Amino acid sequence: ADGILSPNDDIGITFNEPVDLGALTQLNFDVRGVLNGTETRHGSSLFFNGSDSYLEVQAGAPFKNRDFTIQVAVRRAGTNAETILAQGQNVAEEIYLGFNDANKLVFRINGEEVISNESFDNDLWHYIGLSYSFENETADMYVANESFAGLINVGNNSIFPAYEGIGRMLIGKQDYGSASPFNGNIHELRIWDRALSFDEFSLTMNKILPNNEAGLLYNWRMDELEGIIVEDHIRRRDAVNNGAQWAVEPVGASADFDGASNYINVSTGEVLITQDMNFTMELWFRGSGTNAATLF
Fold this sequence. Notes:
- The protein is mainly beta.
- It has 1 helix and 16 strands.
- It has one helix at 198-204, and strands at residues 44-49, 54-57, 68-76, 82-87, 95-99, 104-109, 112-119, 125-133, 138-144, 149-151, 169-171, 183-192, 216-220, 229-230, 239-242, 245-248.
- The strands form 2 sheets. Strands 1, 3, 8, 9, 10, 12, 13 and 16 form an 8-stranded antiparallel sheet that branches.
- The longest helix is centred in the last third of the chain and has 7 residues, at 198-204.
- The radius of gyration is 24 Å and the shape is globular.
- The model has no long low-confidence stretch (mean pLDDT 91).
């Protein structure tokens, strides 16, 4: 199976517990899918705390002596030097994408770097692309957000060292020194086998791509919202989540009660309940105490 539903294909569902088939109706059970090419949303992502949370891809990525593009959506919650992605255990043999102390996007190969003209010191979502040409020895930086889309390292794209390292790839920090951990949200991290143009970046950056998309090596969508395995939808080079928190947007709203004096008073004129009527009450709650407590 290629993961794509085609004419005459069958779908099978396996439940992990006994199911009363007679209780399943069109009112309480349905199966839904997501079409390839659907616009991505920022509804699910991973939040990195800027301290000790990161993802690990044990086998790393094949960056050695080749063209590639890194494509990712990020929203910063911090400032100064932070790592989006790094592979290598020392500055002399490392692929690095992140931000410097001036909040500008930085791409490094073995310590030599290319820096963006623009800074990233706000809490907007940014689609970022790093397009590296091994033959031309260039690295072009793209960004798209609410206010701008285009090339952001005009006149500063030459980079000469050749990366020949191997080893694990980390998302959210470096593998040595202070690690420059990332503080904020990341999702839809992709690695392509070629240097994408800005037009190619723009066409794909916010689209859900199939697992047979030409040239797409890896795609960590970060949309599981549970567990410690972050799936690569292309070749199952899955990442292990070390402490990053699943994030959902928009978040829900609730009232927080201290268990002592907090309460909400609703006028009986607003909600009328009499002894002659039936009624149903429905609510969500999460308690932090273990003693008797009143909900309503």
